[in-house]
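Side project, low priority. Logging it here so it doesn't get lost.
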Amino acid sequence: MNEILSASGRAFELLVSGDAELWIIIGTSFSVSLRAIIIAVPLALPLALLLTLGHFPGRRALVSIFNSLMAVPAVVVGLTVYLLLSRSGPFGDLKQLFTQTAMVVGQVVLALPLLVAMIHAALQAADRRAWETALTLGASRGRAMLTLMHEVRFGLIAAVIAGFGRIIAEVGVSLMVGGNILHHTRNIPTAIALETSKGDFAQGIALGAVLLFLALLLNFFLNFFQGRGELA
C-alpha cells in the first residue's frame, strides 16, 4: 500500500513539474490520434451517407460488415497493417513501419468502422423529410445532404468523440506498427505497458491519470451531445 501511495505521489510530481519525457509521450499520443480522426471522418461520412441514401445490391451486407468490424481486436488491425508495411509486404518500399505515419494508418483503420456505423445509425434515425423537402424545393443532392447532416449534427459529433476515444486508448496497433520508440512513437498506452512491466509505476500512474481524465471528459461530451440530439 505504501508503495502505491509513493508511486502516486511521484506521478503527481511528474504531471505538475512538466516532466519533458512524460509530456512528449502525451503530445505524441494526441498528435497521432488527432491526425487519424481528421483523416477517418471524411472517409467515413460519404460511406455512411451512401449506406443510408443509396439503393444498390449488397447494401445491407455492407452495413452488417461495418457493424461486425467494430468488434475486431486492435491487435488484429495492428497485425494486418504490420504485414502490409513490412519489408515483404506490398507497401514495404515506403519504409513507413515503426513511424508515426504507420500509427496514424492503423488508427484510421481502427476508427473507420466505428465512425461509419455510428454515423449511419444517426442518419437512419433522422427525419427523412428534411432530405425529401430539400430535394422538392430544388436543392442539389449535395445541398440536401448538408441539410440532412445538419439535422443529425449532434449524432455526428458523438460519433467523432467515440471514435477518438477508441483510438487514443488502444495499445495493439500502436505497439505493433509504431515499435514504442522513445521520443518518436511511444504514446500513452504503450508507455504505460512498458513502464509497468519494468516496475516503474510512477510514470504509468501519471499517464493512466491522463487517460482516465480524457475518458471522463470524452464521456461527458458524448452524453451532452447525445442528450442535445434527443432534444433537437
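Brief comment: Residues 23-231 form a domain with the MetI-like fold fold (CATH 1.10.3720.10).
Revisit when time allows.
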